[in-house]
UniProtKB/TrEMBL annotation:
Protein name: Alginate biosynthesis protein AlgF
Transmembrane residue ranges: 6-27, 39-59
Pathway(s) annotated for this protein in UniProt: Glycan biosynthesis; alginate biosynthesis
Listed GO CC annotations: periplasmic space
Organism: Undibacterium pigrum
Key words, A-Z: Alginate biosynthesis, Membrane, Periplasm, Signal, Transferase, Transmembrane, Transmembrane helix
Amino acid sequence: MRLLTYLLTYLLTYSLTYLLTFTGLLAKSRITRLSAIRLLIAHTFGISLGLAMHGSSLAQSTGVLYEPEPPANAAYVRIVHLSPHEQVDVLVDGKLRQSGLQQGQFGDYMILHAGQHELQLRSRLSSKKITATRLDIRAAQVLTLGFGNLQTSLAPQIFEDKTGQNRMKANLTVYHLADKLGPVNISTADGKTSVFRALAPSGSQTLAVNPIKVELLACPAASQPSGAGDCSSPDTQQAKAALVLERGDNYSLLLSTDANSALQARVSKNTLETRVGK
């Protein structure tokens, strides 16, 4: 029995060694026989294993094989703020989670356990500017918190985000934070397709679309002819956003105003914070 086990181990080791040598990985990483066996097991069964290396770790040379799984009761929360000329640090329960968040920039979705949390936005330019809010979140919730500016008493606008189920589509979510402009229309720049019609202030909508490269045009709905869902009227302020939407990804379109109350439209790809396994 021991002889059979030894022969099987020997065969697996040298089979993998040959494969790794052929691809050039062995020469770069200098994987030991034991490490090669563990890598084969990890690859076969989808298990993330720490591999012992001579001189350097596999994670350093080729990247982490698998990200740690989020907790079963995880929720996902991100921040966007509109405070002009501010960079903010995001703290959760007193611990720094993100730093240097710019105006109009969506932060990474932070992975939090369900329950109560205290969120703080702290200005990097002035230690006196701190916004704090308490949040009670449920497992599997996906939230975006929009802060108009850094005021202690200002509650954020809370959006419950939808996650795309169809991996063949791209998902686009628009957030209307240009409240003073009233409802807005969003159409393709050529005016042929209405994408979002009369989106209410502080509102959000999600649309699943085919992968596409397109330019969108946003404008106040009140400035358009009655019933029109596009932005065809030239006598109105408009904001453009160029999109390149890829299959299976999620994107956010933020509508806000600048210091002169002009409409702005900014698009970004959704991101999840990097988690490092301990």
